[in-house]
Amino acid sequence: MIRFPRGSVGLLAAALAILAFQASPSAHHRWKRYHWARTANPFNIDLGRNLTSPWSTGNYLATASTDWSQSDVLDTTVVTGGTTSQCNPTSSRVEVCNAAYGSTGWLGVAQIWITGGSHIVQGTVKVNDTYFNTSQYNTPAWHQFVICQEVRHTFRLDHQDTNFNNANLGTYMDYTNDPDGSVNTQSSNLHPNAHDYEALDIIYSHLDSFTTVGASSSSKTPALNNPSEWGQLMKVAHGGKTQIFERDFGNGQIVVTFVIWA
Fold first, then answer.
1. Cβ distance 196 to 3 under 8 Å?
2. CA proximity to 76, closest of 214, 219, 221
3. What's this model's pTM, rounded to 2 decimal places?
4. From CA 85, how far away is CA 21, in angstroms rounded?
5. What does the pLDDT read at residue 176?
6. Do the Cβ atoms of 29 and 199 come closer than 8 Å?
7. Which CATH architecture fits 12-260?
8. Contact 258, 16 (CB under 8 A)
């Protein structure tokens, strides 16, 4: 059954960038067993706002927060950021940052710290102004498209489709060269669709006996910024444009890196 948005009819890390492997447009676009532990639904994830212009003036994070809060199972709240542009994590929430991180090859990267093999305990999102300051990506549509995709990775949600050149599916979770549909007169990919909300319902269909959200405090674990830290290359898609890396540190501590290269 497809669930519609609420109110409508009917410790190591996992680093995730604008990425994913090929998936059908069903509710199965989710990555492994990772999830935030919580004792009730809906639960709330705080998004720390560590953003400068134009990310701060464009309300891109606020729009992403509003969109994902339409889910049956989770809400998000934009709060004052607790880090610098280095984007070190804060336990029990997600920090969102922008900076000119240099010619890294990536537009955006998200990281989620996993413990016990499956439970997310903290997350970060970084968007790279080195590329967003270029004419190709310096548009409101690209800013909105990327930041919402990165935020959703911290919930464990993956992509529905990774083909940049086919018709838009009408969701953030669809790779595209035309985010708002204005170039090819097609559907806008600037908001989630019903399949995204259904996938969240499935991910968070069970409850835990404890919670990893809510009581935030600074973390001593730094963000993983260097590709040499990402571990073994596990999957390659779209001619190398998207890749998945995994690094297993043992004792249920794993880092998974999803990346799409600019």
1. no
2. 214
3. 0.81
4. 29
5. 63
6. yes
7. 3-Layer(aba) Sandwich (3.40)
8. yes
